[in-house]
Amino acid sequence: MSEGAGTPEPITRLIEAFHKLPGIGPKSAQRLAYHVLRTPPQEAEALAAALRDVKARIRFCSVCLNITESDPCSYCQDARRDASTICVVEQALDILAIERIGFRGRYHVLHGVLNPIEGVGPEELHLKELLQRLGNEEVKEVIMATNPSLEGEATAMYVHRLVAPLGVRVSRLARGLPSGADLEFTDDLTLSRALEGRQDF
Amino acid sequence: MGERPRVYKTEGIILRRRNLGEADSIFTVYSDREGKFDAVARGVRKARSHMRGHLEPLTRTRMMIARGRSIDVFTQAETVTSYRAIREDLERAAGAVYCAELADRFTAEHAPQDGLYALLIDTFDALEAGAPLHTVRFFEVSLVALAGYELQLDACALCGARLPEADTLLSATAGGLVCGPCRAGAGGGRVVSIRAVKVLRHAGRAGIDSFAALDLGEALARELQAALGDVIRHLLEREPSAGRFVDDVSRLPVGATLP
């Protein structure tokens, strides 16, 4: 970075901290740092407190590994939710997407997917915890909600192979055309799955 | 470099993907004419991207690419073969990803290697059509040969002496089989059965279909996997990441595939 010798040390430090964030280049980092410099002290304090709290107060739910302030998390504590269905997702953010559509079962967060080339293997995912839950809880169905990518599919197949011998039903989100899609540009794999999964009116 | 056209068309296999920023991905491709290269697909992680499904790893894709200053950019992509049967079978997918990783690690960018693209396509086509997993051994033997490290299997790799029709030392350091008297100077290795030697020789001479049709049995298939694994590890000076995954998958309980 091109901070001159005259830049005070605290600003340089802040610029470097912003620069470490994903998607923030050196110029954006400078702009953010100087923006913070101009904001009222309370706002800067609030930002600092938010950063501190997120590390101090947020942890993983001991049941489903969702990120949470209270352990177990609100989804795992809620007795109205259907405990016999577990929806398995790649990351905690995916829970928000599935909540939006009204799913009312339980979750399990893997915190990653199998990625053989990048060296992410089964032991890097939270699979052991999932198997433990299937042993302890009355689970009838595991819904694999990993992405329909090579890595997501491989993860779903892997979990299926682990779980199927326990006599639990394993299902997979349907694959096909997203709304607003263009048939002309759709890849053959998606299109053939869409055709196979067609439904009567 | 200056005279090359700014936009080019090529066909290739997507070897790997890395995410970039919010919605972009960088793909590593092995192509027939350009060899291996990296290119970025802008906005490919958005749901409405036109290129999304056409750039999945292990897909054979026709693509149009614009040369950029730091990295090339995909402008169009269309699937030739999506290799669905490979994708929907964990063992096959692991084998194909392993081949893709080796193709990546054994090549340099923009240096097409004669025969490698055809080898990749033949291997994936065979696996797609239901060839057994030992077809991956054909890929390894052929890849190593294409890369200039053809295994010496007909005579001792060190002294050139004829080899007896018996179990023999395969030494990655020596680059092939080593006779009894030379063993001390072979720098280690693994004794392989005469049946394994014959299969390795067959891989060097036969076509992929004839190799795939061999009935190896589990013990011999494992022996060959371990022996060639030694050779690959020696040449790459590391363990291929996907090799570990192949092992993980092979330890799973055998069950039905997903509906």
Report what the structure shows.
The complex is a heterodimer of chains A (201) and B (259). Chain A is an alpha/beta fold and 201 residues long. Among the domains of chain A are: 9-57, RecR Domain 1 (Helicase, Ruva Protein, domain 3); 82-172, Dna Topoisomerase Vi A Subunit, Chain: A, domain 2 (3-Layer(aba) Sandwich), CATH 3.40.1360.10. Helix content of chain A is 43%, strand content 12%. Chain A contains 8 helices and 6 strands, in the order H-H-H-E-E-H-E-H-E-H-E-H-E-H. Chain A has helices at 9-19, 26-38, 41-57, 74-77, 92-100, 127-136, 150-163, 188-196; strands at residues 59-60, 67-68, 82-89, 105-109, 141-144, 169-172. In chain A, the strands form 2 sheets. In chain A, strands 4-3-5-6 form a 4-stranded parallel sheet. Chain A has a two-stranded antiparallel sheet with strand order 1-2. In chain A, strand 5 (141-144), helix 7 and strand 6 (169-172) form a beta-alpha-beta unit. The radius of gyration of chain A is 22 Å and the shape is globular. Chain B has 259 residues and is an alpha+beta fold. Chain B has 2 domains: 7-82, Beta Barrel (OB fold (Dihydrolipoamide Acetyltransferase, E2P)); 85-250, Recombination protein O, C-terminal domain (de novo design (two linked rop proteins), Up-down Bundle), CATH 1.20.1440. In chain B, 35% of the residues lie in helices and 22% in strands. Chain B has helices at residues 84-87, 90-105, 116-128, 135-146, 194-205, 208-212, 218-236, 241-250; strands at residues 7-20, 24-31, 35-41, 60-66, 72-81, 168-171, 176-178, 190-192. In chain B, the strands form 2 sheets. In chain B, strands 1-2-3-5-4 form a 5-stranded mixed β-barrel. Chain B has a 3-stranded antiparallel sheet with strand order 7-6-8. In chain B, 42% of the residues are buried. The mean pLDDT of chain B is 92.
